[in-house]
Amino acid sequence: MGGIPYIVALTVLGHIAFTGSRLAVSLTAIQQNASALSIGVLMSLFALLPALLSIQTGRWVDRVGVKGPLILGSLIATAGCLVAAFATGLTALKLTSALVGTGFMIVGICVYQVVGDLATEDNRATQFSLLAIGFSVGGFTGPLVAGVAIDLLSHQRAFLVLAVFAILPAIAMVIRPIQLPAKHAHRERPDDAAVTDLFHQPQLRRVYLSVLIFSVAWDVYNFALPIHGVRIGLSASQIGIVMGTFAAATFSVRLAMPWIASHMRPWTVIMASCGVSAAAYLAMPFASSIILLMLLLFALGLGLGAPQPMVLAILHKAAPPGRGGEAVGVRILLINGCQTLMPLFFGMIGTLGMLPVFWATAAFLAGGGWLARQSRAAFASKEETPS
């Protein structure tokens, strides 16, 4: 195995450590009788440093290439897991959250860059679909690994198990390196270039707005669905089943993305995704049974799971020469910024009930659909004709 499949496999290992650590940190904090606010701070630390450092990290990857940063990111995430494995208390968990989040941010920028560079114009969306499937597999497996390790071993020993997954990408890259793309020529990036220049390009600006819209929609799902489930009388296990339906839908649509990418243009997929997701959110407040909620969550998973490969393909193509990592860094900044700030905003709106949260998100997605429709018309001549 080599090339993109190898990178995807390493991504799965890293993502298992990341998603497993999020659950393990939360459960360990609960065991230590931490307050809800403290747990919220711990979760936000997974995103805070990545939000602050992602653009500079992207520029660094552009300058030096991906191999060294990928190994370093893996080692930083490993160090984060080991902190919680050998130290107790909220301070240790805060350090773990910050290190694991930062390490995986570096790994993420590197793998996006590798896949984008190794792919061709004709198959880039398909290859990013494979990467998205890898993230889905890691998202399924990480919490399962963490939960089983906690039950069979202990909270601290679970972090040792996760540390193994975190360090495996670094070991693999040392033992069996693959031919990675040559580093971008730093001279291609003007000395006076600023990150705001990226927003001056219509294609990139529209992509970043789409990233922001879908990030908000994902955050609403993570925040509001458990609350809504409790309010309609679902048990914890039933809520878990409903959320598993969403995850299954994202996995399913990403499996189908190679076919979708060969028949539909990226902005068309993004427009359809906004429409499906908006419809699901409009109906969500009226879902009072587990069956109806599962159907809506499956539709929502299809809508929110589809755009990522298309967004990444457009982003890689539209990024200026020598600034691909920086362009991805801006995307990660937007995602992590939402993950840091949106829960507080949703919490304030949620005091009025879940209907305003769901319908405001539906309106936001409808605006995204309009944006995608305009983008499809504006950039149709620049996109590849589907085969």
Gist of the model:
The protein is an all-alpha fold and 387 residues long. 82% of the residues lie in helices and 0% in strands.
Describe this structure in words.
There is one protein chain. The chain is mainly α and 387 residues long. The chain has 2 domains: 1-175, MFS general substrate transporter like domains (Growth Hormone, Chain: A, Up-down Bundle); 195-387, MFS general substrate transporter like domains (Growth Hormone, Chain: A, Up-down Bundle). Helices cover 82% and strands 0% of the residues. The protein contains 15 helices and no strands. Helix 3 packs antiparallel against helix 4, helix 5 (124-152) packs antiparallel against helix 9 and helix 11 (266-283) packs antiparallel against helix 15. The longest helix has 30 residues, at 202-231. The model is unreliable at 183-187 and 383-387 (pLDDT under 50).
Q: What Rg do the Cα atoms give?
A: 20 Å
Mean pLDDT: 78
The stretches of 5 or more residues where confidence is low (pLDDT under 50) are 183-187, 383-387
- The coarse silhouette is globular
H/E series: HHHHHHHHHHHHHHH
Largest sheet: none
**CATH superfamily heading of the largest domain:** MFS general substrate transporter like domains
Helix content: over 70%
CATH architecture of the largest domain: Up-down Bundle
Question: Span from first to last CA?
Answer: 27 Å
Please give the domain count: 2
Number of helices: 15
CATH classification, class level of the largest domain: Mainly Alpha
**SSE class:** mainly alpha
